[in-house]
Write a structure and sequence with these properties.
heterodimer, A: alpha+beta, B: alpha/beta, Amidase signature (AS) enzymes, eleven-stranded mixed beta sheet
Chain lengths: ~475, ~400
């Protein structure tokens, strides 16, 4: 059933730029300060105060554009988007209607179905609005600290077909923005926000179905769930002949459902007008060259290097390069002498369980991590013990792998004689599993290995255990 | 008589007369007396009530800003104060520069009823030239960008150059010396190395002057130029007839969006009665804005609305570009263009961002423009005519 339909999606991603000051004034661009402390006549929109563009915003936008293979406009302008909202002090947002700074770029993503190119339609600069805080008894209060925070809005073409592709695109975009230091791109702090435009059509059809725009998606999980929910809703409507309407929908984490926010009929006429306070934007070829030359190694290049230099799989390399923090952690660990493949493995299976790549914050030094991996590779401890060491260090960063091996008694049993005796004992007491294995049920061996691990508190050398078991039972 | 006494006398005079001449929205006696303390170079100034003054109520002559006290000075105010300027008051304007008023020419009235006050007011539409003519003053609007707009409560930002009103060229020169120069707070502002204090004496008969008057009411000026031996040629600026409608459309569009910030939230008039945020906006704006302001907002939103933007706004921008190009073209042939003081011409110069000076003379007055940033020559030319005029009289 689902196979008969195709979900078509395009994304609008808002990214807060990492500048010291706001886009049009000298107020600090900082998250989490006391309300209305980073404000001035310009970002409060006081009568007579006028904006002046922060040049750094252009540099970062051009950087982001070049890193996503965009064309860069040489001449640009900024436009006012007029609408009333209490968190919008001037009554208009300064954005770009025509002539975005960057346009016609693309990103390559890697999913379980292979590589795919996602086109970027445009990327423009704009200012963020303030924030409304609803206080019991006080009503709605405005915090203008965020007002005037520089943003870029990155609009993709409707090239995305599944939640997996959407997440891969977002991860790639996030990686590029953090590599280039354009943004912190933290979803939980709102510096990386995504709206999804979605429609569903019968497979093979040319024309698009009715489109909805989904907002308030503040985690990768929410995005995935909202896409799944909305796709199902559309298919159901199409099959039952129910009419879908073009609208903006929100997503509730509590109900895990999307809900209607406003229909297209309610959409405002923004009455765009070139902002007469601001001068035209001019970007010179020299500027573009200068920024091009200062670009760091980008995720795709790094990924290629990892597969070539370290022999990692495409998938593993993609995972490790998904954020600059992860890539740096990986490389530092390798520099400390650990085997790259083992490092990659343990980061993906273990470290990502403790800290997601989107919000990478590890409490273990590359040196300690490398040491732990080396202990595994030279047989001193097994993988299970390595995981235990990592978990303990995450809680107690002052401890060393060496001290934990001692305290927790994790030294691997590699002695054939000692292990042989333990195994003999286990065989004697696991008659059922042993019989099953002997009668050809390969899986039954796992139960026996589990018994050995239990007896040795997980310290038995796994490979040696299997070898001895096979000898004795073979 | 000491300086302080002079100011005190002025204040007691103006407090009595203001009701009659309708010049002042706010008389700032206390602030002025304070500014006189330890002031080596005091000179009296007034600012239109559309120019932000720190700690002094600035209303744009609107109920919307009836109690608004700016926490900052406009750049012109800051520079004037630093140079010793003593603000004697804030003068009456059209509401937000476009609406109903007790007196469209409050700044002119204040300057006219004093010995030596220099006035600062919006150059929007070149209206201050009409006020100057009526009150026998000189009005000068420099090239757009020579004076920072920062702190001027916007009418239509691209037409909002600040102008100067005075009884003498010396006061205009002094003011320009103080207030021009790059301002980091206004990206349209220009750096300037023009020496406004030292104007050259020029020979009028050597100047190239074009007369762009289209109507028949300019005979007195034409006669005067003949008498002063200034050769003038008749010139037609093509497309100038579109200046007023284009100005109307562009200014309305910019005005409508500039007025969006007055919504009863952060500052300005806030309605007492409302049941939801929509009503808060609506009631605050209905109560706070006068009828003419509301009409201009409605018209502005109309010309910016979907479908109408191309039809009106874009056309008006094209007309603006054409007028500017045609003026620039003629200004290659003639260094100065003269016309009667009339919105027909003044709006054209305003659209093109060109400097203009007006000299009260005859029935309709004399308005002169020149190329962008040729301001010094414009002042030299104007000053020479004025000195010859004075010679004629004596």
């Amino acid at each position: 059933m689902t196979n008969n339909y195709e979900t078509v999606m395009g994304l609008e991603v808002h990214v807060e730029l990492k500048t010291k000051t706001k886009i049009f004034c000298n107020c600090a661009n900082k998250f989490g300060d006391k309300p209305n402390t980073n404000t001035c006549p310009v970002c409060l929109g006081l009568p007579g105060a006028i904006p002046v563009l922060n040049e750094k915003v252009l540099d970062l936008a051009v950087t982001a554009g070049l890193a996503t293979n965009c064309e860069i406009s040489r001449i640009g302008k900024q436009d006012r988007k007029n609408y009333f909202y209490p968190d919008l002090a001037k009554g208009y947002q300064i954005s770009q209607d025509e002539n975005p700074i960057c346009h016609d770029g693309y990103l390559d993503i890697e999913t379980s179905r292979g590589k795919k190119r996602i086109r970027i339609n445009r990327m423009h600069i704009e200012e963020d609005a303030g924030k409304l805080i609803h206080e019991e008894g006080l009503g709605s209060l405005v915090d203008n600290n965020r007002a005037g925070t520089p943003l870029i809005e990155i609009v993709s073409e409707p090239d995305l077909r599944s939640a997996e592709e959407v997440l891969a695109y977002l991860q790639k975009l996030r990686a590029i923005l953090t590599y280039t230091d354009v943004s912190d791109a933290k979803m939980n702090e709102g510096s990386f926000r995504c709206d999804v435009n979605l429609s569903v059509r019968e497979a093979g059809k040319e024309e698009f179905g009715t489109r909805v725009e989904m907002k308030n998606l503040n985690s990768f999980q929410s995005i995935q769930r909202a896409i799944e929910y909305e796709t199902a809703r559309h298919i159901k409507a199409v099959e039952s002949g129910e009419e879908l309407i073009q609208e903006t929908r929100g997503y509730s984490q509590d109900t895990r459902k999307t809900y209607s926010m406003r229909s297209k009929e309610d959409a405002a006429d923004y009455r765009f007008i070139p902002d007469p306070d601001l001068m035209p934007i001019i970007i010179t070829d020299e500027k573009i060259e200068e920024i091009k030359e200062s670009l760091p190694e980008l995720p795709d290049a790094r990924k290629a290097r990892y597969t070539e230099e370290y022999g990692l799989s495409n998938y593993d390399a993609e995972q490790l390069t998904s954020s600059i923090e992860v890539a740096t952690f990986f490389e530092e660990t390798v520099k400390n002498g650990a085997n790259p493949k083992s490092v990659a493995n343990l980061i993906i299976t273990e470290i990502f369980r403790l800290s997601s790549p989107e919000d990478f914050d590890v409490n273990i030094s590359p040196a300690a991590f490398a040491e732990t991996i080396e202990f595994v590779d030279n047989g001193r401890i097994n993988l299970g013990s390595a995981k235990k060491i990592i978990e303990i260090i995450f809680e107690n960063p002052e401890k060393t792998p060496e001290s934990i091996i001692f305290e927790e008694d994790l030294e691997q049993i590699n002695d054939r004689t000692i292990l042989g005796k333990i195994i003999d004992d286990v065989i004697l007491h696991s008659k059922k599993a042993v019989d099953e294995y002997r009668s050809g049920k390969e899986k039954a061996l796992q139960a026996v290995i589990g018994q050995v691990m239990g007896k040795t508190k997980g310290k038995a050398n796994p490979q040696l255990t299997i070898d001895i078991l096979k000898e004795k039972l073979g | 008589m000491n300086i302080k006494q002079k100011y005190l006398d002025y204040f007691s005079k103006i407090e009595k007369e203001n009701e009659k001449i309708n010049a002042y929205k706010t008389i700032t006696k206390t602030e002025a007396l304070e500014a006189l303390e330890n002031n080596k170079n005091p000179f009296p100034v007034v600012f239109a009530d559309q120019i932000s003054t720190k700690g002094i109520r600035t209303t744009a002559n609107s109920k919307m800003l009836e109690n608004y006290i700016p926490p900052f000075d406009a750049t012109v105010v800051e520079r004037v104060k630093q140079a010793g300027g003593v603000i004697v008051g804030k003068t009456i304007t059209d509401e937000f520069g476009v609406g109903e008023t007790e007196n469209s020419f409050g700044t002119s009235a204040a300057v006219a009823h004093s010995k030596n006050i220099t006035g600062f007011s919006g150059g929007y539409k070149g209206l201050i030239h009409s006020g100057a003519q009526k009150n026998g003053l000189f009005a000068y609007i420099p090239t757009f960008g020579l004076i920072s707009r920062y702190g001027f409560i916007s009418v239509a930002s691209s037409l909002d150059g600040i102008g100067i009103l005075a009884k003498s060229f010396a006061n205009i020169q002094n003011a320009m010396d103080i207030v021009t120069g790059k301002d980091e707070k206004d990206s349209a502002s220009h750096s300037s190395d023009i020496d406004f204090l030292n104007l050259e004496d020029i020979d009028l008969s050597e100047q190239k002057v074009g007369n762009i008057n289209k109507f028949d009411n300019f005979a007195d000026v034409e006669e005067l130029f003949e008498k002063l031996n200034v050769p003038i040629d008749k010139v037609t600026i093509k497309g100038l007839e579109y200046a007023l409608p284009a100005h109307e459309i562009i200014s309305a569009g910019e005005f409508a969006t500039n007025m969006e910030k007055y919504a009863g939230i952060g500052f300005g008039h806030r309605a007492d009665d409302y049941n939801n945020v929509e009503e808060l906006y609506k009631n605050s704006r209905t109560e706070g804005f006068g009828k003419a302001v509301q009409q201009k907002i409605v018209f502005g939103n109309f010309v910016l609305s979907e479908g109408k933007y191309e039809e009106y706004y874009v056309q008006a921008l094209k007309a603006r570009t054409m007028i500017k190009e045609n003026l620039d073209q003629e200004l290659k042939n003639f260094e100065f263009l003269i016309a009667p003081i009339n919105l027909y011409y003044a709006t054209g110069f305003n659209l093109a961002g060109l400097p203009s000076i007006s000299i009260p003379f005859g029935i309709d007055g004399l308005l002169i423009t020149t190329g962008a940033f040729n301001d010094k020559r414009l002042l030299e030319f104007g000053k020479k005519i004025v000195s010859q005029l004075a010679g004629e009289k004596s």
